[in-house]
Amino acid sequence: MSRPWGENPGPPSRTARSDAALRRRRLIAIGAVLVILVVGFAGLQLSDNSGGGAAPPVTTSSPPAQTGPATLTAFSVTGAPRALLAVVGSGGAKAPAALVLPSGMTIIVPGQGETTTENVQALPGESMRVGVSNAVGSWADHYAVTDLRRFGKIIDGAGGLTVDLADAYPVGGTVLGPGRTKMTGDQVVAFLSQRANDTDLRWSSVLQAFLAAAPAVDAQDLTATDDAAAAVAALRSAAAPDVDVEVAPTQVVGGTAIVPSQPAFDQLVGRLFGTPAPVRTLVLNGNGKPGIGEAVARAILPEGFRVVLSENAESFNHPKTTVTATGNAFVDDARRARNALGVGVVQVTRVPSGLADVTIVVGEDFKG
Q1: Which residues partner with 257 through β-bridges?
Q2: What is the pLDDT of residues 123-151, one digit of tens each?
Q3: Residue 314's CB: how many other CB atoms inside 10 A?
């Protein structure tokens, strides 16, 4: 029986009471969510507010690790009877390291032919850098040259060096070593000035101590450099207590010539500095202009090439530069060389030379 309008209803049923309670709980839950959202939005607004108030906490993170090969510096100390020459690597994905280029080792200097490390040191700074870069198969980003006198003063400015000597050495009326030995600048100079068969070992031990001590090297300490500030910064960034200093492996050929021992030499360079194995390249001067070998080397060495031989072509009447790949496997390398030169055409030969992977005949279109 229906009730007339306005008449009070009877008590709600149990089902109606349950439905009402469920609706109340849902409303309460929705309200709580809305409150959380409003508070969160207000917090975001406050954190973005640059008009004042307390700044939000800043989370700092370590700088990303450097990747890629190290920055290389050709480092030369002149004035000794035997070569004191090295490549120092810093930055990149590798820890600081250095490679000593042994005294008397034969190096191919593009445009000048085969010579020893002593003669490479005697070259003007830029040519020295080209020779060192060609030796290690990777471009030296900087070069720094000093002499023994200045080198000794740098060491004295650092309070001396603690050098791990492999043997006992008579120096200046006293015996130094074996083991870790504190040496003054004058003692280091006298130690390296001796014409000794173990010069490479002496130089590597001094260089290791020098880099580990991180002495203050200034621009005026250098007798030649491409960029004093950059070269000094590169040497300073190579400072580390456990810096790895190695002597390049060599072998004797023909009974007299000391040459890099391959592939161990390139493998060691790659391990120390993270550089890839270089592409062997033959450079032939086909336009007759002087200095072509070094000019080509400056262009292609930074791109991962090594000049294994540079000489004159059969004639000087080549109007265009040709870059020949020895097989399809080296076509991309030939194209990269052509791009580095800025001129030339790429071609392929199926006849292996046994000497080089890429051959460049420099034509009149190359201006250097």
Answers
A1: 253
A2: 999 999 999 999 999 999 999 999 999 99
A3: 9
